[in-house]
Design brief:
By secondary structure, this protein is of the alpha/beta class. It folds into 4 domains: about 230 residues, ANL, N-terminal domain (Rossmann fold), CATH 3.40.50; about 100 residues, 2-Layer Sandwich (GMP Synthetase, Chain A, domain 3), CATH 3.30.300; about 70 residues, ACP-like (Non-ribosomal Peptide Synthetase Peptidyl Carrier Protein, Chain A, Orthogonal Bundle), CATH 1.10.1200.10; about 220 residues, 3-Layer(aba) Sandwich (Glycerol-3-phosphate (1)-acyltransferase), CATH 3.40.1130.10. The chain has a 7-stranded mixed beta sheet with strand order 2-1-3-4-5-6-7, sandwiched between helices. It has a 7-stranded mixed beta sheet with strand order 19-25-24-20-23-21-22, sandwiched between helices. Helix 4 packs across helix 5 and helix 13 packs across helix 14. The longest helix is centred in the C-terminal third of the chain and has 22 residues.
Length: about 675
């Protein structure tokens, strides 16, 4: 079904005439690039207006929120499910922080206020979405009007539309002046819409395609007398707005706005030897959407487990098609029409009467975890057993577990919170945690304040007025190798050895001034941010030294992403590649995580060797101790660069080798 240049241009031109998007806006889309709604509403419209578009790197909630905070879009092109989930998190966070009553008050009084005032009152909430969001364009499936009303109460207009791929794809949309959240709005200026006698929505206009490619029978059925028959049912209100009342057939639309054809899943289910026939329907037990399969088993397999059948089939389906619940039909045959078609309304009614007996199914395809483990470890998938532990049996260290989480996300589309997997986690427990669909939570939110111009100025004042004079007195420093930094601009990854709690201040002061306020210091979360002894000073360290939390265990992936975001902003990073303080002054193993950052960021890596700081404050100090004056020597090595694809452990070994070379060049201080 080709969308011609004429169809697309007609649709984009009519969208522009609604004046929803302004020249200079920054759009963000969380729809797949191949989705026709995404192409028309953001990609082609933005090309026509010369706008900036951000395409979310991943459609998972944490990635989307990270992109919004970084790129600060004005307009969000979204599916209803994201708006619903994001609002749920806003309410949950308010409840956790004691702000639930204030949020409810905003929901209550917001609709009575002008939008600029709503946004001013909701500024702390909207800051988590970049702070500039003023419009959300929702499409792909039905939006809960109550969710839309809450967003509008916070000062974000929500515009809903309706469309079909065959219509390039927008048919109707609300406007800023006439916006009813329970409707999908009025037809676009050059689009004609009417209702058939049975309520089916028919469309005609320059945006409608001529038919399906090499499918004459379907073309003749859906394109008649110049009209496109949408297979959707609707009705008009007195204001001329269209309201969607459901599908004429049983096409399933997921909460993410993706179309699922039940016949495709049913044919796969019927390939299983136990299954005589199958009926797949959309169902919402307890208000939670799921694709549900009802199986008619053959007599010889009457006792078969419907869950294992569905999981086998899920391995052959796309992520958005996978069965999430299954039941076994309890009589000889399905209710059928005279043409032997299954009466799916009767099947759904049967499900409603036995809701408590429905069997949940894991959406993790059979063998997916085993294949991901094989990809990361090299162990053949057939030898990966449910009881195997990630570290003891599969030899996965903390970075290996991060890599495994990424491989699972890539193959299944499910986000695994690596903070909840550890050395003793088994393969079976991974499957169980993925099946629960728990939303990943970041332990430490990305802190924007130290990165702003104001934060840089404040940090410069702190350093020059207090930190550098103190460091200069207690740690008089001799520095060699500064010539290696000539002409080197950020972002740079500085990798010093670690022998004292004051290492960062001493090393940072020894660097050229251009790096002082534009370098962030990675600090172990469990030592600095979560430890009561140091935690009270974490805010001061963030302001004065741009210290940020780095997880040594648990959410390693989040910490690596935090580091990458800093470097994307142009900030250099000081990272201790050993991951901990050496209590004997000897160089420990360089972690592969340092190699990962060095390779993936493509930034120059500068090894730094220091000695003598443990004479100022010993490595064993866990609380504030009185420093002693002691000379310090610092040697700066030649920058290292790693090509894309370089093995992380090889990069880590090269960093360690450079540090060892620098330590051999040291002469005793004195």
């Amino acid at each position: 079904m080709p969308l011609t240049h004429r169809n697309v241009l007609s649709n984009v031109r009519d969208i522009n005439r609604l004046e929803l998007i302004r020249p200079g806006d920054h759009l963000m889309s969380i729809l797949p690039l191949a989705h026709s709604f995404e192409q028309a509403a953001s990609l082609f419209t933005s090309i026509a207006l010369g706008l900036t578009v951000t395409q979310a790197a991943s459609l998972s909630g944490p990635h989307v929120r990270m992109n919004m905070v970084e790129d600060r879009p004005n307009v969000l092109v979204s599916v209803p499910e994201f708006l619903k989930l994001a609002m749920g998190q806003i309410e949950a966070r308010a409840a956790e922080t004691g702000g639930a009553a204030k949020l409810e008050r905003l929901f209550r009084i917001g609709p009575k206020l002008p939008f600029w005032l709503r946004r001013a009152l909701a500024r702390p909430v909207l800051r988590n979405f970049g702070g500039r969001l003023r419009l959300a364009i929702s499409g792909g499936s039905a939006l809960d009007a109550r969710v839309g009303q809450k967003w509008e109460a916070l000062g974000v207009r929500v515009i809903q539309g309706y469309g079909a791929t065959e219509c390039s794809p927008v048919i109707t949309a609300n406007s800023l002046e006439d916006n009813l959240l329970s409707s999908v709005g009025k037809p676009l200026p050059s689009v004609e819409v009417k209702l058939a006698d049975d309520g089916e929505i028919l469309v005609r206009g320059p945006n409608v395609v001529a038919g399906y490619w090499n499918r004459p029978d379907e073309t003749g059925e859906r394109f008649r007398d110049g009209w496109y028959y949408t297979d959707d049912l609707g009705e008009w209100d007195r204001g001329g707005r269209l309201h969607i009342r459901g599908r004429k057939k049983f096409l399933i639309v997921t909460p993410a706005g993706e179309n699922v054809y039940p016949e495709d899943i049913e044919s796969e289910l019927c390939e299983e030897p136990e299954v005589r026939d199958a009926a797949v329907v959309a169902w919402e037990p307890g208000g939670v959407f799921e694709i549900h399969a009802v199986l008619l088993l053959s007599a010889e397999h009457a006792g078969a487990d419907c869950r294992s059948i569905a999981e086998r089939v899920n391995a052959r389906l796309q992520p958005h098609q996978r069965v999430q619940g299954a039941s076994v039909w309890d009589t000889e045959d399905f209710p059928r029409t005279v043409t032997r078609k299954v009466k799916k309304n009767d099947v759904r009614a049967w499900l409603e009467t036995r809701a408590s007996g429905a069997a949940p199914v894991s959406t993790v395809p059979a063998g997916a975890i085993e294949r991901a483990v094989a990809q990361v470890t090299g162990v053949p998938a057939e030898q990966v057993l449910p009881g195997m532990r990630l570290e003891a049996d599969l030899k996965l260290d903390s970075l290996g577990r991060v890599t495994l989480a990424g491989a699972i996300e890539e193959s299944t589309g499910l986000v695994l919170d690596e903070g909840q997997i550890g050395p003793e986690t088994t393969v079976a427990e991974l499957r169980e945690r993925l099946s629960k669909k728990e939303q990943k939570q970041e332990r430490h939110a990305f802190n924007e304040a130290p990165l702003t111009p104001r934060g840089v100025v404040q940090r410069t004042i702190w350093q020059k007025a207090l930190i550098w004079p103190i460091a200069s007195y207690f740690a008089p420093t001799t520095v060699t190798g500064l010539e290696h930094l000539d002409g080197l601009e950020g972002p740079v990854l500085f990798c010093p050895n670690h022998i004292s709690p004051i290492d960062a201040a001493v090393v940072l002061r020894a660097l050229p001034a251009r790096f002082h306020a534009t370098t962030a210091v990675a600090a172990a979360s469990d030592v600095v941010f979560d430890n009561p002894a140091y935690g009270r000073y974490s805010g001061l360290l963030e302001r004065s030294m741009n210290v940020f939390p780095f997880e040594r265990e648990g959410q390693i992936k989040s910490s690596l992403q935090y580091t990458a975001r800093l470097m994307d902003r142009g900030f250099s990073v000081l990272l201790y590649p050993e991951g901990r303080i050496s209590t004997d002054g000897k160089l420990g193993e360089v972690l592969a995580g340092a190699g990962l950052i060095a390779v993936e960021m493509g930034a120059p890596v500068v090894p730094v060797w220091q000695s003598g700081t443990d004479g100022v404050v010993p490595a064993s100090a866990v609380t504030f101790v009185r420093p002693k004056r002691h000379p310090v020597r610092i040697s700066i090595g030649e920058p290292l660069r790693f090509l894309p694809g370089c093995p992380y452990d090889s990069a880590a070994r090269e960093i360690r080798g450079s540090l060892e070379s620098l330590s051999g060049m040291e002469r005793p201080a004195g």
